[in-house]
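Can't attach files on this board, so I'm pasting raw text. These are the components:
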Amino acid sequence: MATVNIDRSIDARGMPCPGPLMSLIGAIREGEVGTVIEVLSSDEGSKTDIPAWVAKAGHELVEVVPEEGFTRFIVRKAR
Amino acid sequence: MPAKVVVLGGGVGGTLVANLLAKELGRDGKVSVVDPTGMHHYQPGYLYVALGQANGRWLVRDERTLLRREVDLVIEQATKVDPEKGLVHLERGGTLEYDYLVFATGARLVPDQVPGLRQGSYEFYSLEGAQRLREALRRFRGGRLLVGIAGVPYKCPPAPVEFVFMVEEYLRRRGIRDRSEVTLLSPLNRAFTIESASKVIQPIMEQRGIKLVTFFNVEEVDPSAGTVSSLEGEKLEYDLLVLVPPHRGQQVVIDSGLGDASGWLPTDRFTLQVEGQDRIFAIGDATNLPISKSGSTAHFEAPVVASRIASLVRGTAPNENYGGRVMCFLETGNRKATVLRFDYEHPPAPPQPNLIWHSAKWLFNRLYWETVPQGRLPEKLPMPVPTGRSES
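---
Top answer:
Structure tokens for the assembled complex are below.
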């Protein structure tokens, strides 16, 4: 489990692509720099899409945790 | 007493659901459509207006001419729904009582959500916008033409891709293609939301010399500098910028306290009932469902809602469910198109673009007025089930 404090959690399980990534993008838009956002996604595509977007957008992928039937992505807004 | 059914919105979904219900219920129901303009727009046609291939007159008809005689048309803006009392409040102060209500209110464009967008870019998501873009394209003498999406979700997901293909062809025909750079800005890491469709689209973009910039979520437009910036930190220069404006649900949804933060109605994906409301349904762009916001979606949803309401009026158990069916044509220019057919369980497996699907879209555009609003196209027409594997 992550040791960071989660400021906002998005349960995007069951949401097809690109729902989980778009939810994360929306939360990044709204959050302050330093905000930590958790996204839960059961969509396979998120495993590549979310880390790729976080890298391009210059934020920090704190942790990717495989869970039973879904993945937990923890992202810190860096700029 | 006949059951009172009120349909908010006279677009594809609202018109079809009203006509189907009036026919099905006969004297057991009284169906009213409430629409602020009383004019019905065939929105897929805006694309052709922008490219100078159609004029606006073809795209607009009086809603009255599309409704069955027994359906009332109330030309008014609905301002608020009171689910407790079963009342719709109207802008001019009146109210309408309902036993069953259908939100077919669509989406609205909110260009001011993005700084500089209104002043610095063109769009083809309204008739006026498409006409302005047509004039801007006529004046265009070559340069950097950028096409992007300024917010998700937006109506008709294939439209920006169709536009880049068709505008590339337009520039070639005008003899200014070699002086122009055509670029698609995608919010995702591929050209289109659906991966199987991107695999068909991207090689054609490459062949046609159309550039693709991925992960470009529009943040701001600077009209004086001629630049567009992304949330991801990129800034691109343009000579002509075409952006799909951000979309939101209608104000009446928000003011009724029924929508989410963006004004979309939380809707059951199978029954199309608004969550927590036994007598309220939603179809088309108004819902929060994670499927295409398109006329096709509304077209396939309308018979389900009509059937469920008819069952409720008659006191029988509703048994029709929406399976997520959508069918969209996607023009790739050069008189070719492909088709995206999918539902909740089956992602699309689009064929290589060809003349047949281009002709089918052309035919559909011309037959729309006489078929879709009246329910004359068989919604349950068996279509080849897409066989694509589940992809993101």
